[in-house]
Amino acid sequence: MKISIVGAGRAGRSFAAALGADHEVTLLHHDALSPLDADLVLLCVPDDAIEEVARAVRVSAHTVVAHVAGSRGLDVLAVHDRVGSLHPLVTMPDAVTGARRLRGAVFCVDGDALLGEVVTSLGGRRIAVPAARRTLYHAAAATAANHLVALMGSVQVLADAAGLALGDFLPLAQQSLDDVMTVGPARALTGPASRGDVDTIAAHLAAIADEERPTYAALAARATRLAATRAEATCDD
Q1: pLDDT tens-place string over residues 144-173
Q2: What pTM was estimated for this model as a whole?
Q3: What structural domains does the chain harbor?
Q4: Rounded to the nearest 5 degrees, what angle is found at the Cα of 118, between the Cα atoms of 28 and 45?
């Protein structure tokens, strides 16, 4: 398959490296476009630029034009006849890591059937999300990746305040994530919220610096609700 990738950032370079083994891939900057002779044009540009770049792309009627954004539907590609989206549920901090993670990844696919062939060539798995739930899907992805990283930023601040390092707590975080994968969030939950220990939570809030307190309070409240779902499930049994 002839694939032109538009956008030479982390996503574009990751896709180019991952697809290059099985396809004829050309990597282009979004501001250096000419008529493209390709089976697939993959737009790896910032979400807000997709519609503008799509309008600038000149292709034949048989070419599929697709983007890799989780937050956008197919409407931003409406100027083309064959369109699609291919959003990978992976993080791509650099091209080497991104390419490795794209192989065998989960992809949210919409639109033209050609994108299914691309996923198959990467050894990936396809999921589909109705257009009406696209924003919720992307919110879940952002929470799973970006917000988890932001949470670790908060852990780092608290660890520093205690005279320790983030690395001291990463094995604990990994164990918790492993437990979520094994038994699900409700059963994996431990700590004061899971046992209704409000005095300990109050002590934590009193000790935490002002700027970190809202994060802890919000997460403690969410953990308390999660613990309640576990209790309800136990009662139902």
Answers
A1: 999 999 999 999 999 999 999 999 999 999
A2: 0.89
A3: 2-128 (3.40.50.720), 133-230 (1.10.1040.20)
A4: 35
